Structure formats: structure tokens, C-alpha cells
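Q: Please design a sequence for this.
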């Protein structure tokens, strides 16, 4: 899941989920197992950055999350999450 921060085209939250991405985003926005960053600043999803990656096995997703966070940072994004 990649959520764009309000007021910024270059700030994103990156995280893995086994839920439909839109459902997980709404959980964040509603305060259920949420990142405060997404709850407070989440504007919407950016499917162009992740749709082509889904679905994938868990082990591959763990590595992809790290790689994608690094790639986005190299492109000038501020990335929250992306352990």
C-alpha cells in the first residue's frame, strides 16, 4: 500500500498488507491498527506505484517493500514505513 500525504506530491507511506489495499487504507484512516502519519495526513492511494507488484508471496513482499522504499527515496520521495 502506498498512501500519498496531503499537500505533498513527494511524501508517501509504504506498507504491506494481506487485505485489499483500499480496505487497509480505510483502516488507517479510521484509526484501526493505523500509522498516525496515514491517519493524520493520508490523502489517497497511488496504485500506479504498486498495482503491478500485487499479489506476491510474503517473503518476496518483505524484500520488495525495502527495495521500493529505497527506489522511491532515490526518486526524491519522503518515505514513511517501508521497513
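A: Design:
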Amino acid at each position: 500500500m502506498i498512501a500519498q500525504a496531503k499537500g505533498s506530491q513527494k511524501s508517501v507511506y509504504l506498507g504491506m498488507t494481506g487485505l485489499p489495499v483500499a480496505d487497509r487504507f480505510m483502516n488507517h484512516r479510521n484509526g484501526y491498527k493505523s500509522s498516525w502519519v496515514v491517519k493524520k495526513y493520508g490523502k489517497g492511494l497511488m496504485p500506479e506505484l504498486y498495482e503491478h507488484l500485487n499479489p506476491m508471496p510474503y517473503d518476496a513482499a518483505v524484500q520488495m517493500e525495502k527495495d521500493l522504499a529505497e527506489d522511491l527515496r532515490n526518486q526524491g520521495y519522503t518515505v514513511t514505513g517501508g521497513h
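Q: Thanks. Anything notable?
A: The CA atoms of residues 2 and 47 lie 7 Å apart. The mean pLDDT is 89.
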